[in-house]
Design goal:
By secondary structure, the chain is α/β, with parallel strands linked by helices. The protein is 44% helix and 13% strand. The protein is built from nine helices and eight strands. The strands form two sheets. The protein has a six-stranded parallel sheet, with helices on both faces. It has a two-stranded antiparallel sheet with strand order 2-3. Strand 6, helix 7 and strand 7 form a beta-alpha-beta unit. The longest helix has 16 residues. The protein is globular.
């Protein structure tokens, strides 16, 4: 495969590669208690598909709080600590077809694969190491690097052009929410939607992704589509 035929994959984490079954929300809630002395299950805060700094901004607005110097760093460390405690063997799972898809992408000469996630770097590392896939990705783009998902996708695609010579038209975003579809469009990339998160297939399909999958066990279909780009 020539450089001109190179493809770059940007994979979402939660709901696309894995599920943590509510542990992240629990970790944020515990950190809120640590920081502000307030019990809140955060059930009214939207998490799916959003950057964690945006989630934190909603929490601060709800509780009418701000951070003084150093307090935000302590808040994130509290979140990560609580996540490590909660994400124990038996909680959470890799989604169907994920290891096999990662193998297939890695096996294609000239293809590169990384992450595009709203998770903070520390949170993403905890999850990926827990499921033993942290070393599968050549690069990552994380929640602290941009305010929202669209800006993060544009940043990611720009890096791929600079570091690998891959134009936006040869980048593929894979995700499970409307935010993944929107950010791919904002960055000029292709987008594959998978109905493995909190959104129904019908909801995602109505937004017109380039390819719609029930889950990543549809590997052969996905690979055939990608090779034809």
């Amino acid at each position: 495969m020539t450089d001109g035929a190179r493809l770059a994959w940007l994979l979402d984490v939660d709901g696309t590669l894995l599920l943590t079954e509510g542990e992240a929300r629990e970790a944020f809630a515990a950190a809120v208690t640590d920081q502000f002395g307030t019990a809140d299950d955060l059930k009214d805060i939207a998490f799916a598909g959003r950057t964690e700094p945006l989630i934190l901004a909603d929490i601060l607005k709800k509780h009418r709080q701000t951070f003084a110097n150093g307090e935000e760093e302590r808040f994130w460390e509290s979140v990560f600590t609580h996540m490590r405690v909660r994400l124990v063997p038996g909680r959470g799972r890799l989604l169907p077809g994920v290891p096999e898809l990662l193998d297939a992408i890695e096996g294609e000469p000239g293809w590169v694969m990384g992450l595009l996630t709203g998770n903070m770097t520390g949170m993403a590392r905890i999850k990926l190491e827990h499921f033993q896939i942290a070393e599968r990705f050549r690069f990552g783009n994380y929640g602290e690097e941009a305010h929202d998902r669209n800006a993060l996708a544009r940043l990611a695609v720009g890096r791929l052009g600079r570091d690998y010579g891959v134009p936006p038209s040869r980048c593929i975003v894979v995700g499970d929410t409307e935010h993944d579809i929107a950010c791919a469009r904002a960055a000029g990339a292709h987008v594959v939607a998978v109905a493995t998160g909190s959104r129904r297939r019908e909801e995602l399909e109505a937004l017109g992704p380039d390819l719609m999958l029930d889950d990543l066990t549809e590997r052969d279909r996905l690979m055939e589509w990608a090779r034809a780009l």
